[in-house]
Amino acid sequence: MATDRPVALVSGSNRGIGREIARQLAGRGNHVVVTARDERAAEQAAAELVRGGGEVTAAQLDVADPASVKRLRERIEADLGRLDVLVNNAGVIGDTSASAATADLEDVRDTLETNLFGAWRLTQSFLPLLRRSGAGRIVNVSTGMGQLAEMGSGAPAYRISKTALNALTRVLANEEREAGILVNCLNPGWVKTDMGGPAANRSVEDGADTAVWLATLSEGGPTGGFFKDRQAIPW
């Protein structure tokens, strides 16, 4: 069933920041596709968002699985007929206890597969629909740990995967500018989620705010930027 509403796809949106991004986008009138690797988890999250008044579809998505990505693209094109917003939120943290000198490179590859290649794969698959939108928005959820300007030690797989995602953001922004697609990334800060832990100093509402702002930018908004709290930050 095609929809006249803008359609937003948020990867990894059954919990945490992704779920809050989905909730806020649905509240702004978007039809949101809520996804998780486990379809039942996506369905449960979607049902709760629908009770909150949103227009939501649940879907299985594993960004590391090309077949899963292909199925979702075909489903969205057939059922909704459009995609206007892609939020690459799905991510893993990898081994945070490792150093660059001791890191298990298989763990590094697994982290890159989700955080970099997963976002890249999903973007490639949905670019035709985003171009057709005429006002497509791509939002990549990054981290301050991926900033070269403040790069520290520890968690090398996670840091490097997000630094690479930042670079992908810049390349895509330049390539897709003529198609009217705005591509940006953000540092949500240290957020109280399963990944961030209970000691984190930011709520999911605060963590999601900049992502939602970037997803709903007006024509002529920034592209190729890195943001926190709606302000540009150094790479």
Describe the protein in words.
By secondary structure, the chain is of the alpha/beta class. It has a single domain, classed as NAD(P)-binding Rossmann-like Domain (Rossmann fold, 3-Layer(aba) Sandwich), CATH 3.40.50. The chain is built from 6 helices and 8 strands; from the N terminus they run E-H-E-H-E-H-E-H-E-H-E-H-E-E. It has helices spanning 16-27, 39-51, 66-79, 105-133, 156-175, 204-215; strands at residues 7-10, 31-36, 55-60, 85-88, 137-141, 182-186, 226-228, 231-232. The chain has an 8-stranded mixed beta sheet with strand order 3-2-1-4-5-6-7-8, sandwiched between helices. Strand 6, helix 6 (204-215) and strand 7 form a beta-alpha-beta unit. Helix 1 (16-27) packs across helix 6, helix 3 (66-79) runs parallel beside helix 4 and helix 4 packs parallel to helix 5 (156-175). The mean pLDDT is 95.
Overview features:
single chain, 8-stranded mixed sheet, 235 residues, alpha/beta, Rossmann fold
Secondary structure layout plus pairing:
Blueprint (H helix, E strand, L loop, with lengths): L6 E4 L5 H12 L3 E6 L2 H13 L3 E6 L5 H14 L5 E4 L16 H29 L3 E5 L14 H20 L6 E5 L17 H12 L10 E3 L2 E2 L3
Parallel strand pairs: 1-2, 1-4, 2-3, 4-5, 5-6, 6-7
Antiparallel strand pairs: 7-8
Strand share of the residues? Answer: 5-15%
- Can you name the CATH architecture? 3-Layer(aba) Sandwich
Low-confidence stretches: none
- Output the CATH class name: Alpha Beta
* The named CATH superfamily: NAD(P)-binding Rossmann-like Domain
Quick rundown:
With 235 residues, the protein is an alpha/beta fold. 43% of the residues lie in helices and 15% in strands. A hairpin with a 2-residue loop joins strand 7 and strand 8 (231-232).
